[in-house]
């Protein structure tokens, strides 16, 4: 995504503007260290491109930016649950309009804060009071932190994920490593060598992955790292050909240039008492 080409609707500072992308409002960062774009619909990171490098974030060429469905690609915010634990799948945060709360900047980069609070609409889905903040720190790396606060009077139980789609040159040459000695696939626990390549659909939960997972991307001659905290697993996903063909918001061959490496609380295992917070973080870097 060429974020510099998006039409500007408001200038907030030297490095931060608000733009339009089809039906969406997008916060755009153009800084000497990197460019980035974040949709207010879903608090969804659409692009992160360090200076002199290719975009680290993959976006589907058929993504729907109408604001009527979740966006394919980028970094969807799956919250307050992950997967099909409840309806809607992956929670409601990725289909909600977030508020631009704050932006700060200096010569090292830009920090964007987006917030979401409970409303009549969210309480109809999930009857709890909450405050969610997504902090996006754009420097020569990208750090995304999801801060969940229980603003109600009784305990809440949450899960979630920062569902990062990484942009790669050729999935058949890509290796993801530092994944630990076990993975969960289709509900079954299986031994792991600690790394995986791709020659078919991969949809695995790695509950013992290292804090920093490594993605070797030889087609683009680079190595990416994804460093996570606040999670209890890393999910690795590539839909492969048949599933890509079945999805209307993915090109048939788009599986070849993406892999998801997700900081995840996969089992809704975080309990927050009244006033308590939890932070789920992912930090993406490239060498």
TrEMBL record:
<comment type="similarity">
    <text>Belongs to the glucose-6-phosphate 1-epimerase family.</text>
</comment>
<dbReference type="InterPro" id="IPR025532">
    <property type="entry name" value="G6P_1-epimerase"/>
</dbReference>
<dbReference type="InterPro" id="IPR008183">
    <property type="entry name" value="Aldose_1/G6P_1-epimerase"/>
</dbReference>
<dbReference type="InterPro" id="IPR011013">
    <property type="entry name" value="Gal_mutarotase_sf_dom"/>
</dbReference>
<feature type="active site">
    <location>
        <position position="262"/>
    </location>
</feature>
<dbReference type="GO" id="GO:0005975">
    <property type="term" value="P:carbohydrate metabolic process"/>
</dbReference>
<protein>
    <recommendedName>
        <fullName>Putative glucose-6-phosphate 1-epimerase</fullName>
        <ecNumber>5.1.3.15</ecNumber>
    </recommendedName>
</protein>
<dbReference type="GO" id="GO:0030246">
    <property type="term" value="F:carbohydrate binding"/>
</dbReference>
<keyword id="KW-0413">Isomerase</keyword>
<feature type="active site">
    <location>
        <position position="163"/>
    </location>
</feature>
<dbReference type="InterPro" id="IPR014718">
    <property type="entry name" value="GH-type_carb-bd"/>
</dbReference>
<dbReference type="Pfam" id="PF01263">
    <property type="entry name" value="Aldose_epim"/>
</dbReference>
<dbReference type="GO" id="GO:0047938">
    <property type="term" value="F:glucose-6-phosphate 1-epimerase activity"/>
</dbReference>
């Amino acid at each position: 995504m060429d974020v510099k080409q998006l039409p500007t609707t408001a200038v907030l500072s030297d490095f931060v503007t608000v733009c339009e992308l089809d039906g969406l409002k997008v916060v755009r960062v153009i800084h000497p260290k990197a460019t980035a774009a974040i949709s207010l619909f879903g608090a969804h990171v659409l692009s992160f491109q360090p200076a002199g490098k290719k975009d680290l974030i993959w976006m589907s060429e058929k993504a729907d930016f109408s604001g009527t469905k979740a966006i394919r690609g980028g970094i969807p915010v799956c919250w307050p649950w992950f997967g099909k634990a409840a309806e809607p799948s992956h929670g409601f945060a990725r289909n909600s309009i977030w508020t631009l709360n704050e932006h700060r900047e200096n010569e090292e980069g830009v920090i964007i804060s987006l917030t979401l609070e409970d409303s009549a609409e969210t309480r109809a889905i999930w009857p709890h009071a909450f405050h969610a903040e997504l902090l996006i720190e754009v420097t020569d790396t990208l750090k995304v932190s999801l801060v969940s606060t229980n603003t109600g009077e009784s305990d809440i139980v949450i899960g979630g994920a920062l569902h990062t789609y990484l942009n790669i040159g050729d999935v058949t040459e890509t290796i993801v490593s530092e994944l630990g000695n076990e993975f969960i696939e289709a509900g079954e626990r299986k031994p792991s060598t600690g790394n995986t390549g791709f020659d078919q659909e991969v949809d695995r939960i790695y509950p013992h992955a290292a804090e920093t997972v490594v993605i070797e991307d030889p087609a683009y001659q680079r190595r990416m790292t994804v460093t996570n905290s606040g999670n209890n697993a890393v999910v690795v996903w590539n839909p492969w050909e048949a599933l890509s063909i079945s999805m209307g918001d993915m090109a048939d061959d788009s599986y070849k240039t993406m892999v998801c490496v997700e900081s995840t609380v996969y089992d809704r295992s975080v309990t927050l008492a009244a006033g308590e917070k939890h932070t789920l973080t992912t930090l993406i870097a490239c060498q």
